[in-house]
Amino acid sequence: MQFKTKEEAQEYFNFYSKVAGFSVATVAISRTTSKKRNNEVTRITMKCNKWGKTKEIEKDCIVPMRKSTVIAKTDCKVMMVISEKGGLWEITRQQLEHNHELTPNSRFFRSHKYMSDEDKCLIRVLKHTNLETRRIVAVLAYLQGGMAHLPYTKKHVTNYAATGNRDIANSDMMEAVQMFNKKQTENPGFCYSFELDGENKVRSLF
To answer: If we measure between CA atoms, which residue out of 31, 30, 3 comes closest to residue 16?
Structure first.
């Protein structure tokens, strides 16, 4: 199979992994040594996140039936390698036989928490209308065909909305400063000042 971009190939494997029931980890990225191509990526190796073996020190951290940041490795050999050839990305190596149980369409694999640009745009628009986060999630879930098909949680929506608010606030502040600078060039008697808080954010503006 061939893809127009590496992102398209990665999304394809990630979508397959969601349907099959495993999570993906990008384990290796190769770059060209050609100066003309400016260190471009030429090959990407993706594997099942249960690849390799669990270290002895990590075994003590695995807690059954509870949240754990440590993944129980099974030395799974599932992998997909994509390489750039003539401007296209091609699958050059593939192994799809797992050595562990699969959980198809699970919402809790890290690599499946994918938020598209369209989703992000809709979140920004709905947030701008002061719609509550739980209602924004309900709209997104409806468009995806139900809560079970939403590839992220309410927390991810909240976090993204907060990031959007910070970006808007920073953008507004930059526009204000640019306007003041322009005002100063037009009127030398004009002056302004702003005060920052402990987190380097604008607290007050004079």
So the answer is: 3
